[in-house]
């Protein structure tokens, strides 16, 4: 039983680490979700132990237009010993009000509930396997 749980945990972890997908858009393009571009395989080239691929959602007040703008993209974030991600958003384009870093597929979208099919499958398996065995 324990081996099965470890297997599903490894599969879920591998999916997060090796196949992170993010949204990408800049400024007015972020107003319409249809203009967002998919960025598959975010962070595949990360070789440093203390860094990881991540998705970023930054909301800032544009210095010229004084309007709130959004930026979504794939980044390389710093990873602490406990696995938490951190990234310092640049204020070059204007004052940042939101700087969210995450590491789940398309987690830098608008507010929504995201889940992984592998994680769901793992939860179902953990529930059903003891009943079968």
TrEMBL record:
The keyword Lipoprotein is assigned to this record: yes
Gene: 109546494
Keywords on record: Glycoprotein, GPI-anchor, Lipoprotein, Membrane, Signal, Transmembrane, Transmembrane helix
Domain of life, source organism: Eukaryota
UniProt membrane topology term: Lipid-anchor; GPI-anchor
Subcellular location: Membrane
Secretion signal, residue range per the UniProt entry: 1-19
Protein's name according to its UniProt entry: Protein sleepless
Cellular component annotations (GO), alphabetically ordered: side of membrane
Coarse class of the protein's main subcellular location: membrane
Organism, as annotated: Dendroctonus ponderosae
């Amino acid at each position: 039983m324990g081996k099965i749980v470890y297997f599903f945990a490894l599969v879920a972890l591998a999916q997060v680490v090796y196949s992170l997908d993010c949204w990408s858009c800049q400024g007015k393009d972020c107003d319409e979700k249809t203009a967002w571009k998919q960025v598959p395989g975010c962070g595949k080239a990360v070789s440093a132990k203390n860094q990881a691929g991540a998705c970023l959602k930054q909301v800032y007040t544009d210095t010229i237009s004084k309007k709130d703008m959004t930026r979504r993209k794939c980044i390389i974030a710093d990873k602490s010993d406990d696995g938490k991600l951190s990234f310092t958003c640049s204020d070059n384009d204007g004052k940042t009000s939101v700087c969210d870093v995450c590491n789940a597929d398309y987690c830098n979208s608008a507010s929504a509930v995201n889940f992984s099919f592998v994680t769901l499958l793992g939860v179902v398996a953990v529930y059903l396997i003891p009943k079968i065995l």
